[in-house]
Amino acid sequence: MDPEVEDFSKVKIAAEKTRKLLKEDLGLPVYLMTTGSRGLHIVVPLKRTRDFDEVREFAQSAADFLEKENPELLTTAARKNKREGKIYLDVGRNAYGQTGVSPYAVRPVKGAPVATPLEWDELKESSLSPKSYDIKNIFKRLEEKGDPWKSIEASGVTLTAAIKRLAKMSGSQ
Predict the structure, then answer these.
(1) Predicted confidence (pLDDT) per residue in 12-35, tens digit
(2) DSSP code of residue 37
(3) CA distance 7 to 160
(4) For the chain, what percent of residues have pLDDT higher than 70?
(5) Where are the alpha helices (DSSP H) in 20-145?
(6) Helices (DSSP H) in 20-152: which residue ranges?
(7) What region does 146 belong to: left with phi over 0, alpha with psi -120 to 50, or beta?
(8) With bands split at pLDDT 50, 70 and 90, how would you rate the model's confidence at 79?
(9) Sign of CA dihedral 60, 66, 67, 68
(10) Cβ neighbours of residue 126 under 8 Å, at least 6 residues apart?
(11) pLDDT value at position 2?
(12) How far is CA 30 from the centre of its chain?
């Protein structure tokens, strides 16, 4: 979730809408992480049963559905001049040779913010920002809360059922 502007409250709303679609409607496990920059990453752990193109196609279909349902808030327009202040649903990381921000990566900017895995209920905290955690406070957080993604690998799923549900919801089945 890449915001056009620095209004993180819109990013939080977008994340909740994405969680609802992926978890509640499509039955997928969904993990959340601040980027340490301006947005959030939402991750669905997958078993390795599909190639990059199939995963990207599913991610694009989900993003298209979210954009259609929330046109005032979300966009899939890659060009910044086409986003009109909306939250960009960047599915481009789901392709061969693409990279994303790793959990607990220190970002190379002032204050050394850290990309931080979160519990979903933390999204409701008014003080939460994409730069809430940095090299100075991340270890205290880990001591107090542990790693919210400690079981992410064990929760991997296939996309088969979710692809069928999304197609039905989109009216393309």
Answers:
(1) 999 999 999 999 999 999 999 999
(2) S
(3) 35
(4) 99
(5) 52-69, 138-145
(6) 52-69, 138-145
(7) left
(8) confident
(9) positive
(10) none
(11) 85
(12) 8
pTM of the model: 0.93
Between CA 59 and CA 117 the distance in angstroms is: 20
- CATH code, domain with 55: 3.90.920.10
Place of tokens 């079981």: 151
Model confidence at 140: pLDDT above 70: yes
The helix (run of H) or strand (run of E) holding residue 43 is strand 40-43
46 pairs with which residues across the strands? Answer: 157
Burial of 100 (0-12, 13-18, 19+ CB in 10 A): middle
Work out how many domains the chain is built from and give that number: 1
The type of residue at 44 is: V
CB 74 within 8 A of CB 17: yes
Tokens describing residue 82: 């086409």
What pLDDT sits at residue 98? 83
8 Å CB contact between 5 and 85? yes
Domain range for 112 is 2-170
**Token pair for 12:** 């939080």
